[in-house]
């Protein structure tokens, strides 16, 4: 059986037989969140879920208001895999990451106790979880690297989506409030290059702009540009 890779991990269910997929999903609940909503906050209770449809952002926030994007989740991604493993050493600290629905999104929240019990007795299930976790480490490293090693369009796509997602939490609008000079400084380029790259994104219908403002029209396509690097 193959291991289809997704940004942030693998499609967990694709690694399992139909019968074991059903067992993993026993007791799970489907929940939906509108674009801009915080689907899951950092801290207790512990949870694990699959993103069924949409686009979501994982981020860490500090008390002073600063935020850092740590992941973009695509359909098929498992979030909170470590909470599926019975081990006090990795489950004693509360979750640090909040999850934001960047577009209208559907999540499948797993029954922790049910999946933990299954993982403790079924080699295929625990192997699938381990495969996801190993791939997630690879993804995390590449997401850090995109800011410095990605192409101009990949670095700009990440910067715009990060800024716009943070703005969305405040006012509900997926907009990056930054001048061309601000964006150029942030991604280590020039205003001219940023201007040309933005024009390409505008022509593709992914963004639209005004002085000091870039409105994200198609966050899924923008995230796909970032995903091209982290794959």
SSE topology sketch:
Elements: E1 5-6, E2 9-10, H1 18-24, E3 29-33, E4 38-40, E5 49-53, E6 56-61, E7 67-73, E8 78-79, H2 88-91, E9 98-101, E10 105-109, H3 112-121, H4 123-149, H5 152-171, E11 175-176, H6 180-187, H7 191-203, E12 207-210, E13 213-216, H8 219-230
Antiparallel strand pairs: 1-2, 3-10, 4-9, 5-8, 5-10, 6-7, 6-9, 11-13, 12-13
Helix pairs in contact: 3-4, 4-5, 5-8, 6-7
Structural features, described:
- The protein is α+β, with helices and mostly antiparallel strands and 231 residues long.
- It folds into 2 domains: 5-145, Jelly Rolls (Sandwich), CATH 2.60.120; 150-230, Orthogonal Bundle (Arc Repressor Mutant, subunit A), CATH 1.10.10.10.
- The protein is built from 8 helices and 13 strands.
- The strands form 4 sheets. It has a 4-stranded antiparallel sheet, with no helix packed on it. Strands 4-9-6-7 form a 4-stranded antiparallel sheet. A 3-stranded antiparallel sheet has the order 11-13-12.
- Helix 4 packs across helix 5 (152-171), helix 5 (152-171) packs across helix 8 (219-230) and helix 6 (180-187) packs across helix 7.
- The radius of gyration is 18 Å and the shape is elongated.
- Residues 1-7 have low confidence and may be disordered.
Number of strands: 13
**CATH top level label of the largest domain:** Mainly Beta
Morphology call: elongated
> What is the helical fraction, as a range of percent?
40-55%
Strand order of the largest sheet: 3-10-5-8
Order of helices and strands: EEHEEEEEEHEEHHHEHHEEH
Please name the CATH architecture of the largest domain.
Answer: Sandwich
Structural class by helix and strand composition: alpha+beta
Task: Give the DSSP E fraction (strand runs of 2 or more residues).
Answer: 15-25%
Measure the end-to-end span: 20 Å
The name CATH uses for the topology of the largest domain is Jelly Rolls
Q: How many domains would you count in the coordinates? A: 2
CATH superfamily of the largest domain: Jelly Rolls
What's the story with the biggest beta sheet? 4 strands, antiparallel
**Low-confidence spans:** 1-7
